[in-house]
Amino acid sequence: MTPPAATTDATPVVAAADRFRSDSFPLIFERSSPGRRAARPPVTDGDDMATLLGEEHLREAPPRLPEVAELDLVRHYTQLAHRQFSIDGNVYPLGSCTMKYNPKLHEDVAERFLDLHPYQDEEGAQGILELLFEVQRDLAQITGMDDVSLQPAAGAHGELAGILMIRAYHMANGEGELRRVVICPDGAHGTNPATAAMAGYEVVEVPTGPDGEVDVDAFRAALGPHVAAVMLTNPNTLGIFETRILEISRLAHEVGAQLYYDGANLNAIVGRARPGDMGFDVVHLNLHKTFTTPHGGGGPGTGPVGVKAHLAPFLPVPRIVRSGAGYTIEGERAHSIGRLRSFYGNVGNLVRAWAYIRRLGLVGLKRVSTMAVLNANYLRVRMREAGYTIAFDRVNMHEFVAQPPAGTKTLDVAKAMLDYGVHPMTVYFPLVVREAMMVEPTETESLETLDAYAAVLGEILERTAKDPEWISRAPTTTPVGRVDEVRAARKPVLRHEFSD
Ligand SMILES: Cc1ncc(COP(=O)(O)O)c(C=O)c1O
Question: From CA 254, how far away is CA 464, in angstroms rounded?
Fold first, then answer.
């Protein structure tokens, strides 16, 4: 979509009469009018910016920011927010991404720590240090690991930390040069091979077998003394539990490889099974997936990483450790892979995760995985009844992969769903399933919502059978309809063009 030509002068691009129409949505620059301000810096009488800031800090030309009054600004972003699809607004069953509800109580708890400053002295920050220590300890217990770092800022960041620790471990054992391969299944999330490649490894892919699990014969054949690590998630990205995980971990360890657990799917097993007990040496967790913190790729994300004792010396710093009757920040560690981000991790999210774990306890956490699996299996059957094919149709865990009937495209179904006010599932992932629709309702959706979702999917196929053309026009009720996806990918419009 080409945005309308923009201007920063007083001439509005949007005709006055169209300004309030919900289908005309000007850019903030198009609301701009010279001299308007939402806020003014506190300049006291007689002072100007040069006096306040110092001549050397002044810009040569003013920034080209939109100039709007506070009310226009508020309306602009409020209207934008209303156009957002969010878990607070409606069902959002993205497979793998796990869009589960973020309870508001956790926001309240997190807000109580807003006044703390990262440079606050330890003595005055014992409360938050204790809380962070408890999160480290709880996550270690939940995953069956010996130690945890809260540093990484996203799942993918946790992966990087984990693989760097594995690399450091092999180097410390004099095997850094020998072990140059990381094995990933062909259904792996893209961040797994990307992480391995970023850490300097060659990636070897192993295929999925006809039962949806890792093909163990192919896996065995790929193993050898050159393998540094095996990255897996269990249940895997098809939502299927790897029933031969103990054999896989034995085989990997027999050749000296380390087993990495991508914790994206932990909500399927939390409270019932632990990666550490399956033989994994490292695990990252996406706190937004299992522990209800807000989503955010790399932004407000949090991806703690846990390790078995032999990898603990390599954990990132800083870490929260016990010191006498209190807690202290360990800033250095002899063999640490170092710092991954500023300060102590994404503390606001860690507080939210702490609140969740404390509220649920072990009994509640078990119920999380029970409901995640129950909901997904219920929806799997309902989608089958609605006319979709289920890839690897067997009892699954927290998510499953479906396909539309032959002749119907997943993308079209996904677009049509928007007209019903529901968010599509993850589409075209994992790559091992043609026209994949990966559905993860999560544990937080009700039976009525699951029924309604299945009904939408059924109705889309019924309408398509009667009028095959309509689906290619959908969505027609959203602020933006079908966009030219190829053009958007090849020639994205990523910046505002000023008219002068
Ligand atoms: C299986 C899997 N691994 C890793 C990631 C990466 O996590 P993040 O988005 O927190 O970086 C995801 C994200 O959806 C995922 O689904």
Answer: 53
Q: Is the peptide bond before 210 cis (omega within 30 degrees of 0)?
A: no
SS3 376: helix
Q: pLDDT per residue over 169-216, tens digit each?
A: 999 999 999 999 999 999 999 999 999 999 999 999 999 999 999 999
The pTM of this model reads 0.89
How far is 368 from 361, CA to CA, in rounded Å? 11
* DSSP state at residue 267: G
Contacts of 40 by beta carbon, 8 Å cutoff, 6+ apart: none
Residue 294 φ then ψ, to 5°: -60, 150
| 276-297 pLDDT per residue, tens | 999 999 999 999 999 999 886 5
CA Rg value for the chain: 26
Domains of the chain: 1-71 (no CATH), 105-359 (3.40.640.10), 362-489 (3.90.1150.10)
- Write out pLDDT tens, residues 145-175: 999 999 999 999 999 999 999 999 999 999 9
Q: How far is the CA of 315 from the centre of ligand 1 (A)?
A: 21
Atom 5 of ligand 1, residue of closest alpha carbon:
155
Place of tokens 């920011």: 65
Provide CB contacts within 8 A for 195, sequence distance 6+: 156, 159, 160, 163, 231
Q: b/e for 154-165, b at 16 or more Cβ within 10 A?
A: bbbbbbbbbbbb
Q: Decide if 249 contacts 220 (C-beta within 8 A).
A: no
Residues with CB under 6 A from ligand 1: 96-97, 154-156, 189, 191, 233, 237, 262, 264, 286, 297, 301, 303
| Spatial contact of 309 and 169, defined as CB atoms under 8 Å apart | no
